[in-house]
Amino acid sequence: MAEQQTKKRISFLGPDASFTHLAALKAFPDSELIAYTTIPECIEAVADNEVEYAVVPLENALEGSVPLTIDYLFHEVQQYVTAEVLSPIEQHLMVHPDNAKSDSFEAIYSHPHALAQCHKFLYYTFKNTPLEQYSSTSAAAKMVSELPERNIAAIGNEFSAQKYGLTIVHREIHDFHFNHTRFFVLSKTNHQLDNPAHNDKVKTTLMISPPKDDRSGVLHQVLSVFAWRQLNLSKIESRPLKTGLGNYFFIADVVDDEMSPMMQGAFMELAALGCTVKTLGSYYTYE
Ligand SMILES: O=C(O)C(=O)C[C@]1(C(=O)O)C=C[C@@H](O)C=C1
Protein backbone atom coordinates (compact mmCIF):
# COMPACT_ATOMS: atom_id res chain seq x y z
CA MET A 1 0.00 0.00 0.00
CA ALA A 2 1.46 3.36 -0.99
CA GLU A 3 2.81 5.20 2.02
CA GLN A 4 0.33 7.88 3.07
CA GLN A 5 2.09 11.06 1.93
CA THR A 6 1.72 13.43 4.88
CA LYS A 7 1.11 16.99 3.74
CA LYS A 8 4.18 19.17 3.86
CA ARG A 9 3.89 22.09 6.27
CA ILE A 10 5.13 25.44 4.92
CA SER A 11 5.69 28.65 6.90
CA PHE A 12 5.23 31.99 5.18
CA LEU A 13 5.21 35.70 6.09
CA GLY A 14 1.52 36.26 6.69
CA PRO A 15 -1.25 36.83 7.29
CA ASP A 16 -3.07 35.34 4.27
CA ALA A 17 -2.88 37.38 1.07
CA SER A 18 0.68 38.66 1.54
CA PHE A 19 2.90 38.49 -1.53
CA THR A 20 4.80 35.77 0.30
CA HIS A 21 1.55 33.84 0.70
CA LEU A 22 1.00 34.06 -3.08
CA ALA A 23 4.56 32.81 -3.67
CA ALA A 24 4.03 29.93 -1.22
CA LEU A 25 0.78 28.96 -2.99
CA LYS A 26 2.67 28.92 -6.31
CA ALA A 27 5.47 26.77 -4.95
CA PHE A 28 3.35 24.45 -2.75
CA PRO A 29 -0.22 24.34 -4.13
CA ASP A 30 -1.04 21.13 -2.25
CA SER A 31 0.66 21.72 1.10
CA GLU A 32 -0.40 23.05 4.50
CA LEU A 33 0.53 26.76 4.49
CA ILE A 34 0.98 28.29 7.95
CA ALA A 35 1.17 32.08 8.39
CA TYR A 36 3.74 33.63 10.74
CA THR A 37 4.02 37.30 11.70
CA THR A 38 7.71 37.86 10.98
CA ILE A 39 10.47 36.47 8.76
CA PRO A 40 12.51 35.19 11.74
CA GLU A 41 9.45 33.28 12.99
CA CYS A 42 9.10 31.64 9.56
CA ILE A 43 12.76 30.57 9.64
CA GLU A 44 12.66 29.45 13.28
CA ALA A 45 9.60 27.30 12.47
CA VAL A 46 11.91 25.28 10.18
CA ALA A 47 14.62 25.12 12.86
CA ASP A 48 12.05 23.89 15.41
CA ASN A 49 10.59 21.27 13.04
CA GLU A 50 7.18 22.97 13.14
CA VAL A 51 7.32 23.00 9.32
CA GLU A 52 9.39 21.35 6.59
CA TYR A 53 9.95 24.51 4.52
CA ALA A 54 9.81 28.29 4.92
CA VAL A 55 8.96 30.72 2.11
CA VAL A 56 10.53 34.12 2.80
CA PRO A 57 11.15 37.26 0.69
CA LEU A 58 14.79 37.75 -0.28
CA GLU A 59 14.97 40.67 -2.67
CA ASN A 60 12.85 43.01 -4.73
CA ALA A 61 13.66 44.38 -8.17
CA LEU A 62 13.11 47.98 -7.05
CA GLU A 63 14.21 47.95 -3.43
CA GLY A 64 16.96 45.33 -3.37
CA SER A 65 17.54 42.77 -0.65
CA VAL A 66 15.38 42.16 2.42
CA PRO A 67 18.10 42.64 5.07
CA LEU A 68 16.25 40.69 7.77
CA THR A 69 16.22 37.52 5.66
CA ILE A 70 19.91 37.77 4.76
CA ASP A 71 21.06 38.67 8.29
CA TYR A 72 19.01 35.89 9.90
CA LEU A 73 20.41 33.28 7.50
CA PHE A 74 23.95 34.53 8.10
CA HIS A 75 23.95 35.07 11.86
CA GLU A 76 21.28 32.82 13.35
CA VAL A 77 20.71 29.53 11.49
CA GLN A 78 22.19 27.09 8.98
CA GLN A 79 19.43 26.47 6.48
CA TYR A 80 19.51 25.77 2.78
CA VAL A 81 17.77 27.20 -0.25
CA THR A 82 15.92 24.33 -1.91
CA ALA A 83 14.16 26.52 -4.50
CA GLU A 84 13.65 30.13 -5.50
CA VAL A 85 10.35 31.64 -6.66
CA LEU A 86 9.94 34.92 -8.56
CA SER A 87 6.60 36.76 -8.40
CA PRO A 88 5.36 39.88 -10.18
CA ILE A 89 4.47 42.59 -7.66
CA GLU A 90 1.56 44.99 -8.18
CA GLN A 91 0.87 47.45 -5.38
CA HIS A 92 -2.52 49.11 -4.91
CA LEU A 93 -3.81 51.65 -2.37
CA MET A 94 -6.84 50.28 -0.54
CA VAL A 95 -9.26 51.50 2.14
CA HIS A 96 -12.25 50.31 4.14
CA PRO A 97 -15.39 50.78 1.97
CA ASP A 98 -16.68 53.35 4.50
CA ASN A 99 -13.72 55.57 3.53
CA ALA A 100 -13.78 54.97 -0.23
CA LYS A 101 -14.68 58.61 -0.94
CA SER A 102 -11.80 60.06 1.14
CA ASP A 103 -9.10 61.87 -0.81
CA SER A 104 -6.80 62.24 2.20
CA PHE A 105 -5.88 59.87 5.04
CA GLU A 106 -4.62 59.98 8.62
CA ALA A 107 -1.84 57.55 7.59
CA ILE A 108 -0.89 54.93 5.01
CA TYR A 109 0.33 51.52 6.27
CA SER A 110 2.36 48.78 4.58
CA HIS A 111 5.53 46.68 4.60
CA PRO A 112 8.61 48.97 4.30
CA HIS A 113 9.52 47.45 0.93
CA ALA A 114 6.02 48.16 -0.39
CA LEU A 115 6.13 51.77 0.83
CA ALA A 116 9.54 52.22 -0.82
CA GLN A 117 8.34 50.72 -4.12
CA CYS A 118 5.62 53.42 -4.23
CA HIS A 119 7.77 56.33 -3.06
CA LYS A 120 7.15 58.65 -6.03
CA PHE A 121 3.37 58.03 -6.07
CA LEU A 122 3.14 58.67 -2.34
CA TYR A 123 5.32 61.78 -2.55
CA TYR A 124 3.30 63.41 -5.33
CA THR A 125 -0.16 62.25 -4.25
CA PHE A 126 -0.02 62.02 -0.44
CA LYS A 127 2.95 64.26 0.35
CA ASN A 128 2.08 65.09 3.95
CA THR A 129 0.46 61.79 4.89
CA PRO A 130 2.38 59.78 7.52
CA LEU A 131 3.71 56.48 6.14
CA GLU A 132 3.63 53.73 8.79
CA GLN A 133 5.68 50.54 8.48
CA TYR A 134 3.88 47.25 9.14
CA SER A 135 4.98 43.60 9.29
CA SER A 136 3.52 42.81 5.85
CA THR A 137 1.21 44.25 3.20
CA SER A 138 -1.57 41.84 4.15
CA ALA A 139 -1.19 42.62 7.88
CA ALA A 140 -1.68 46.28 6.99
CA ALA A 141 -4.74 45.43 4.86
CA LYS A 142 -6.23 43.28 7.64
CA MET A 143 -5.71 46.06 10.21
CA VAL A 144 -7.37 48.67 7.94
CA SER A 145 -10.35 46.34 7.43
CA GLU A 146 -10.79 46.06 11.23
CA LEU A 147 -10.73 49.84 11.88
CA PRO A 148 -13.39 51.48 9.66
CA GLU A 149 -13.62 54.36 12.11
CA ARG A 150 -10.04 55.39 11.30
CA ASN A 151 -9.55 57.12 7.94
CA ILE A 152 -6.44 55.10 7.02
CA ALA A 153 -5.20 53.21 3.93
CA ALA A 154 -3.00 50.21 3.18
CA ILE A 155 -0.77 49.27 0.25
CA GLY A 156 -0.99 45.68 -0.93
CA ASN A 157 -2.06 43.30 -3.68
CA GLU A 158 -5.47 42.65 -5.23
CA PHE A 159 -5.81 39.39 -3.31
CA SER A 160 -5.54 41.21 0.05
CA ALA A 161 -8.21 43.76 -0.98
CA GLN A 162 -10.56 40.87 -1.78
CA LYS A 163 -9.62 38.85 1.31
CA TYR A 164 -10.19 41.74 3.73
CA GLY A 165 -13.06 43.45 1.91
CA LEU A 166 -11.20 46.64 1.05
CA THR A 167 -11.84 49.04 -1.82
CA ILE A 168 -8.91 49.80 -4.14
CA VAL A 169 -8.84 53.58 -4.66
CA HIS A 170 -5.53 53.83 -6.59
CA ARG A 171 -4.27 50.96 -8.76
CA GLU A 172 -0.67 50.04 -9.75
CA ILE A 173 1.01 52.71 -7.64
CA HIS A 174 4.50 51.11 -7.68
CA ASP A 175 6.94 53.57 -9.28
CA PHE A 176 8.42 51.24 -11.90
CA HIS A 177 6.97 48.40 -13.93
CA PHE A 178 8.64 44.99 -14.03
CA ASN A 179 8.41 44.97 -10.26
CA HIS A 180 9.28 41.46 -9.05
CA THR A 181 10.24 39.92 -5.74
CA ARG A 182 12.45 36.86 -5.34
CA PHE A 183 11.57 34.42 -2.57
CA PHE A 184 13.66 31.63 -1.03
CA VAL A 185 12.28 28.23 -0.06
CA LEU A 186 14.31 27.20 3.00
CA SER A 187 14.95 23.80 4.58
CA LYS A 188 17.16 22.33 7.30
CA THR A 189 18.59 19.86 4.79
CA ASN A 190 20.59 20.64 1.66
CA HIS A 191 18.57 19.41 -1.32
CA GLN A 192 16.87 20.74 -4.46
CA LEU A 193 13.12 20.94 -5.12
CA ASP A 194 11.55 21.14 -8.53
CA ASN A 195 10.09 24.61 -8.92
CA PRO A 196 7.03 25.38 -11.04
CA ALA A 197 9.03 27.14 -13.74
CA HIS A 198 12.57 25.85 -13.34
CA ASN A 199 14.91 25.20 -16.17
CA ASP A 200 18.08 23.16 -15.72
CA LYS A 201 20.21 26.13 -14.70
CA VAL A 202 21.42 25.86 -11.11
CA LYS A 203 22.52 28.64 -8.75
CA THR A 204 24.43 28.49 -5.49
CA THR A 205 24.15 31.21 -2.84
CA LEU A 206 27.24 31.84 -0.70
CA MET A 207 27.96 34.10 2.26
CA ILE A 208 31.66 34.98 2.18
CA SER A 209 33.39 36.59 5.16
CA PRO A 210 36.80 38.09 4.22
CA PRO A 211 39.91 37.37 6.31
CA LYS A 212 40.16 39.38 9.52
CA ASP A 213 43.51 40.94 8.54
CA ASP A 214 41.59 43.47 6.40
CA ARG A 215 44.37 43.55 3.78
CA SER A 216 43.69 45.69 0.72
CA GLY A 217 42.52 44.05 -2.47
CA VAL A 218 40.75 41.16 -0.77
CA LEU A 219 37.50 41.76 -2.69
CA HIS A 220 39.51 41.70 -5.92
CA GLN A 221 41.02 38.38 -4.84
CA VAL A 222 37.58 36.96 -3.98
CA LEU A 223 36.18 38.02 -7.35
CA SER A 224 39.24 36.58 -9.11
CA VAL A 225 38.54 33.17 -7.54
CA PHE A 226 35.36 33.05 -9.62
CA ALA A 227 36.48 35.05 -12.65
CA TRP A 228 39.36 32.86 -13.82
CA ARG A 229 37.18 29.76 -13.36
CA GLN A 230 34.52 31.46 -15.53
CA LEU A 231 32.00 31.08 -12.70
CA ASN A 232 29.33 33.68 -13.35
CA LEU A 233 28.29 35.77 -10.34
CA SER A 234 24.67 36.77 -10.99
CA LYS A 235 24.69 38.82 -7.78
CA ILE A 236 27.14 40.03 -5.16
CA GLU A 237 26.43 42.51 -2.42
CA SER A 238 27.89 43.41 0.95
CA ARG A 239 26.10 43.31 4.31
CA PRO A 240 27.46 44.54 7.68
CA LEU A 241 29.13 41.83 9.78
CA LYS A 242 27.81 43.77 12.81
CA THR A 243 31.34 43.68 14.30
CA GLY A 244 32.03 47.35 13.67
CA LEU A 245 31.60 50.04 11.05
CA GLY A 246 33.16 49.04 7.73
CA ASN A 247 33.20 45.29 8.43
CA TYR A 248 31.22 43.38 5.78
CA PHE A 249 30.42 39.93 4.48
CA PHE A 250 29.43 39.31 0.88
CA ILE A 251 26.37 37.43 -0.31
CA ALA A 252 26.94 36.05 -3.80
CA ASP A 253 24.89 34.00 -6.25
CA VAL A 254 27.07 31.78 -8.45
CA VAL A 255 25.56 30.18 -11.56
CA ASP A 256 26.87 26.66 -10.93
CA ASP A 257 26.28 23.70 -8.64
CA GLU A 258 28.35 23.78 -5.44
CA MET A 259 29.49 20.19 -6.14
CA SER A 260 31.04 21.02 -9.52
CA PRO A 261 34.85 20.69 -9.76
CA MET A 262 35.24 24.43 -10.40
CA MET A 263 33.11 25.34 -7.38
CA GLN A 264 34.99 22.87 -5.18
CA GLY A 265 38.22 24.48 -6.35
CA ALA A 266 36.78 27.92 -5.59
CA PHE A 267 35.89 26.85 -2.04
CA MET A 268 39.47 25.63 -1.49
CA GLU A 269 41.00 28.84 -2.87
CA LEU A 270 38.69 31.05 -0.78
CA ALA A 271 39.76 29.11 2.33
CA ALA A 272 43.40 29.49 1.31
CA LEU A 273 42.79 33.26 1.11
CA GLY A 274 41.57 33.17 4.69
CA CYS A 275 37.88 33.65 3.83
CA THR A 276 35.07 31.88 5.68
CA VAL A 277 32.33 30.61 3.37
CA LYS A 278 28.79 29.71 4.45
CA THR A 279 26.89 27.98 1.67
CA LEU A 280 23.10 28.17 1.43
CA GLY A 281 23.17 25.32 -1.12
CA SER A 282 22.36 24.96 -4.81
CA TYR A 283 18.91 25.23 -6.39
CA TYR A 284 17.23 25.48 -9.75
CA THR A 285 16.88 28.99 -11.11
CA TYR A 286 13.35 30.30 -11.59
CA GLU A 287 13.05 31.70 -15.12
O1 LIG B 1 4.43 42.24 2.81
C1 LIG B 1 4.25 41.30 2.02
O2 LIG B 1 3.19 41.06 1.41
C2 LIG B 1 5.38 40.43 1.77
O3 LIG B 1 5.20 39.34 1.33
C3 LIG B 1 6.78 41.00 2.00
C4 LIG B 1 7.31 41.72 0.79
C5 LIG B 1 8.80 42.01 0.96
O4 LIG B 1 9.38 41.67 2.02
O5 LIG B 1 9.38 42.57 0.02
C6 LIG B 1 7.19 40.89 -0.42
C7 LIG B 1 6.95 41.42 -1.65
C8 LIG B 1 6.82 42.88 -1.83
O6 LIG B 1 8.03 43.37 -2.33
C9 LIG B 1 6.46 43.58 -0.60
C10 LIG B 1 6.66 43.00 0.62
Can you describe what's shown?
The chain has 287 residues and is α/β, with parallel strands linked by helices. Helices cover 27% and strands 33% of the residues. The protein has 9 helices and 15 strands. Strands 1, 2, 3, 4, 5 and 11 form a 6-stranded mixed sheet that branches. Strands 8-7-9-6-10 form a 5-stranded mixed sheet. A 4-stranded antiparallel sheet has the order 13-14-12-15. A hairpin with a 7-residue loop joins strand 13 and strand 14 (248-254). Residues 13, 18-20, 57, 60, 66, 89, 111, 113-114, 136-138, 181 line the site of prephenic acid.
Q: What's the structural blueprint in terms of helices and strands?
A:
Elements: E1 9-13, H1 19-27, E2 32-36, H2 39-47, E3 53-60, E4 64-65, H3 67-75, E5 80-88, E6 92-95, E7 107-110, H4 112-117, H5 119-125, E8 131-133, H6 137-146, E9 152-156, H7 158-163, E10 167-170, E11 180-187, E12 198-209, H8 218-227, E13 233-240, E14 248-254, H9 261-272, E15 276-286
Parallel strand pairs: 1-2, 1-3, 7-8, 7-9
Antiparallel strand pairs: 3-4, 3-11, 5-11, 6-9, 6-10, 12-14, 12-15, 13-14
Enzyme class: lyase
Pathway: Amino-acid biosynthesis; L-phenylalanine biosynthesis; phenylpyruvate from prephenate: step 1/1
GO molecular function: prephenate dehydratase activity
What is the structure about, briefly put?
The protein is an alpha/beta fold and 287 residues long. The chain is built from 9 helices and 15 strands. The protein binds prephenic acid.
